[in-house]
Amino acid sequence: MAEFAAYGHAIASLAIWPLIVLALAKTSSSGRSPELMCECGKPKRDYNSVLYRRERAFMNAVEISGPFIAATIAAILAGASPFFVNLFASVFIVARLAMVFVHIRTTNQPLRSACFAAGAACVIALSLMAFTSAVF
Predict the structure, then answer these.
(1) Which of 14, 2, 22 is closest to 123 using CA atoms?
(2) Residue 31 to residue 26: CA distance in whole angstroms
(3) Do residues 71 and 127 touch, judged by C-beta distance below 8 A?
(4) Is residue 36's pLDDT more than 70?
(5) Are 20 and 96 in contact (CB under 8 A)?
(6) Has this prediction a pTM greater than 0.85?
(7) Mean pLDDT, rounded, of the chain
(8) Long-range CB pairs of 22-28, under 8 A, 24+ apart, other chains included
(9) Domains assigned to the chain
(10) Counting CB atoms within 10 angstroms of each CB, which of 9, 24, 39, 126 has the fewest?
């Protein structure tokens, strides 16, 4: 395990992320009532509804989970710069926590998009580092 010691922050980020997603899963399912739900079982689309925003925050987290986990593990296994892998994995967690707060507590679309973009940029950076470290 010594070869992975330098990636401590990235590995911690991989451990923290599922806890965030599980907390969002719990939050997204509370407060549901039949009049607020569609026939499919999901909340009716209404960004003014905190129920809908909690569901979207959870689904956004689920959607980015695979890319974040894959890119981070690939960067670690490819031996990409530990400093940058740790940095981007940690910034991803911070950006996504900010997005959760903005998504659930507000209807501020530009700020929510900025938080999403910051997290997505981290995943892209991790992917590119993994690719270049593996190929070159």
Answers:
(1) 14
(2) 10
(3) yes
(4) no
(5) yes
(6) yes
(7) 93
(8) 24/54, 24/57, 24/58, 24/61, 24/100, 25/58, 27/54, 27/57, 27/58, 27/104, 28/54, 28/55, 28/57, 28/58, 28/59
(9) 2-135 (1.20.120.550)
(10) 39
Q: How far apart are CA 110 and CA 117, in angstroms?
A: 10
Give tens-digit pLDDT for 101-136: 999 999 999 999 999 999 999 999 999 999 999 999
Distance CA 63, CA 115 (A): 15
Provide Rg for the chain, Cα atoms. Answer: 17
For residue 104 the two structure tokens come to 């659930």
The per-residue b/e assignment along 55-80, b for 16 or more CB within 10 angstroms, e otherwise, is bbbbebbeebeeebeebbbbbbeeeb
- C-beta contacts of 43-47 below 8 A and 24+ residues apart: 47/107, 47/109
